[in-house]
Amino acid sequence: MKRLISLCLALGAAWSAHAGPVLDRIQSSGHIVLAHRESSVPFSYVLPDGKPVGYAVDLCLKLTDALRQRLKLKSLTPQFLLVTPANRIQMVAEGKADLECGSTTNNAERREKVAFTVPHYITGARYLVRADSGITELSQFDGKTLVSTKGTTPLKSITQANNERALHIRVVEAPDHAKAMEMLAAGQADGFVMDDVLLYGLVSARPDAAKFQVVGKFLTIEPLSIVLPKGDPEFKSLVDEEMKRLVTSHEAHALYERWFLKPIPPKGTALNLPMSYLLKDFWKYPSDQVPY
């Protein structure tokens, strides 16, 4: 029995010694830094009282609890860090955030700097326009202004499409989704190109929601995932393991229903967005590997 106890202690010490920088920091500090967004409804946004909420935030809190149990900590306090589309990758890459809980696309360019876990949503970029604009497709933006958010894949994609197809669109940047929405509402832009689920979320929070509509075919396909530091296989293994468990146990499905099919704060409006066939198929065999 003494030998068995000694062996267990030795194995535990060995695991701690090779736990990786993120797990070491979490274990020694007793807190985890969760990066969140300001207006990425319903994934990650801030209520009027300053509290971060959303689908991705809830997933990160589930991951936090799993890490607490795995590290055998009495408590693990989440510390929230507000990030923007422009600096979210940098905050994780520099170790200022342990997880980025938002609506970030997993693609090859970003995988050069950070890692991603199992996608929690699959969407695509489309266009938000004023309902009386008559615009229904990309070609109708010829000679008009399209706004998108700085540091996002839809901005890069529309810029590329505009150049390659000679569409003569004036593409402008906004610092965040809320500002881009303001520009569209004020007539400073004719359309707002972004992941369609985010467009639906932004519109749902407005009292004049009927004045806007999402149009057009998908410009991109976007697998959205929680971001974590690159080069820390132990931390990534634990996060991936828990994400797969959340999917296979259907806990993630319940969270999806909570944020996409039921009323959400602060207005109590439901997005009524059933799970897409793309996400259903992907979650049959959940993986961090995406073909993009």
Topology:
Layout: H1 2-17, H2 21-29, E1 31-36, E2 39-40, E3 44-46, E4 52-53, H3 55-70, E5 77-82, H4 88-93, E6 99-105, E7 114-116, E8 121-123, E9 125-130, E10 145-149, H5 153-165, E11 170-174, H6 177-185, E12 191-195, H7 196-204, E13 212-215, E14 222-229, H8 233-248, H9 251-260, H10 277-282
Helix pairs in contact: 3-8
Protein traits:
single chain, 292 residues, alpha/beta, D-Maltodextrin-Binding Protein, domain 2, disordered N terminus
Folded structure, characterized:
The protein is of the alpha/beta class and 292 residues long. The chain has two domains: 20-122 and 222-282, Periplasmic binding protein-like II (D-Maltodextrin-Binding Protein, domain 2), CATH 3.40.190.10; 125-215, Periplasmic binding protein-like II (D-Maltodextrin-Binding Protein, domain 2). 38% of the residues lie in helices and 22% in strands. The chain has ten helices and 14 strands. It has helices spanning 2-17, 21-29, 55-70, 88-93, 153-165, 177-185, 196-204, 233-248, 251-260, 277-282; strands spanning 31-36, 39-40, 44-46, 52-53, 77-82, 99-105, 114-116, 121-123, 125-130, 145-149, 170-174, 191-195, 212-215, 222-229. The strands form three sheets. Strands 1, 5, 6, 7, 8 and 14 form a six-stranded mixed β-sheet that branches. It has a five-stranded mixed β-sheet with strand order 11-10-12-9-13, with helices on both faces. α5 (153-165) links the parallel β10 and β11 (170-174). α3 crosses α8 (233-248). It is globular. The N and C termini lie far apart (52 Å). InterPro entries: Bact_solute-bind_prot3, Solute-binding_3/MltF_N. Residues 31-263 form the Solute-binding protein family 3/N-terminal domain. Residues 1-19 form the signal peptide. Pfam families: SBP_bac_3. Keywords: Signal, Transport.
